[in-house]
Design a protein that fits this description.
- Helix content is 47%, strand content 15%.
- It is α/β, with parallel strands linked by helices.
- A hairpin with a 7-residue loop joins β9 (317-323) and β10.
- The protein folds into 2 domains: 3-83, Arc Repressor Mutant, subunit A; 147-337, Vaccinia Virus protein VP39 (Rossmann fold, 3-Layer(aba) Sandwich), CATH 3.40.50.
- The protein has helices at 3-11, 13-25, 28-31, 39-46, 50-62, 78-81, 92-98, 101-106, 110-116, 121-126, 130-136, 138-162, 183-191, 203-206, 213-216, 251-264, 287-297, 305-313; strands at residues 37-38, 66-69, 73-76, 173-177, 196-201, 223-227, 239-243, 270-275, 317-323, 331-337.
- The longest helix has 25 residues, at 138-162.
- α11 (130-136) crosses α12.
- The radius of gyration is 22 Å and the shape is globular.
- The structure holds S-adenosylmethionine (SAM).
- S-adenosylmethionine binds at residues 131, 148, 151-152, 178-180, 200-202, 205, 229-231, 243-245, 248.
Amino acid sequence: MSDFEKTFDIIFGRWKSQILYAGVKLGIIDCLTSDSKEVSEIAKKLVLDESLLYRLLRALGSLGFVLEESGHKFSISSQGKLLKKDHIQTLQGILLLEEGPEHYQIWKHLPTMIRDGKQNAFFKEYGCNLFEYVYKNTEYSQIFNEAMTSYSKLHTNMILEALASYDFSKISHICDIGGGHGFLLCNLLSKYFHMKGTLLELESVISNKELLWASKMGLEDRCNYEVGDMFKQVPYADAYTLKMILHDWNDEECIKILSNIHTSSSNDAKIFIIEHIVTNPETPHFSKLFDIHMMCALSGRERTIEEFSSIFEQSGWKHVKTHYPHSGIIGVIEGIKK
Ligand SMILES: C[S@@+](CC[C@H](N)C(=O)[O-])C[C@H]1O[C@@H](n2cnc3c(N)ncnc32)[C@H](O)[C@@H]1O
């Protein structure tokens, strides 16, 4: 692509993601199969306006998510299948959160935040921190937690790949801090049979037992869900994982979380921080975009390895190694007690 084409594509990026959002939000993507359906049939089933639905489907076709045949007939494409709820690595949850109304609204504050030197547009827009909003708003809470599982489905294989040669035999009890519904923890437990696991979460996230992966994966005897606040106290364990946790918080808040883990853990404890790690200045990376989202959404940021080493140092930990999967999208920063 030429510079002109690349720029043009970026200017209209939001149009594309909003077209896709509407297609998923209205249930159109989930309704389509590999056998083509007439627009009138889809409109009737989903109670939508047939003529406007046709135009949306045509645009989705232009983006590659559906296939259009003559006679206003549509079927799902292989790219479209990635957005279906039941796809094994579904991206549906991520799309519904990141293009949904709450996250859409916060981006408009970006220029002002940078002018004023004050981040966290979520607070400015909704008058409370994102996690308080999750607690208060049932619909957003469901979307947020599904998105976290969607992210975890994407990341878990990468983490297992990055840690494939790591010796887990010395770890008997692993704790996932802010582990959502437990997709990552349960996948670690099902790969390493000798370990037991504890997941620390806010009550609202783990109160509905039906959503938890330990029961879905038959791991209830080795996986314990504990309600708590990582800023106050964390459970005892000999290894800890924190995936997409530190990026939510500023350095001072991260040091508090890491210090609490340091206090509660065994003498030879290990820590694994999983994040989108900011690369060197010459290398474009998704972390540099996610960092702007964190500027809008919370008090956090994405960090370089040096920045992680510094908060480790200030909370009693020492950075020993960074493990990357082949894709390099995320990395696992390993620490031990100093
Ligand atoms: C960005 S999400 C990451 C979830 C999960 N680790 C993942 O990667 O899919 C942050 C998680 O931290 C949890 N959390 C926020 N504040 C917390 C606190 N004070 N104590 C424990 N968990 C907390 C949230 O409920 C949420 O599930």
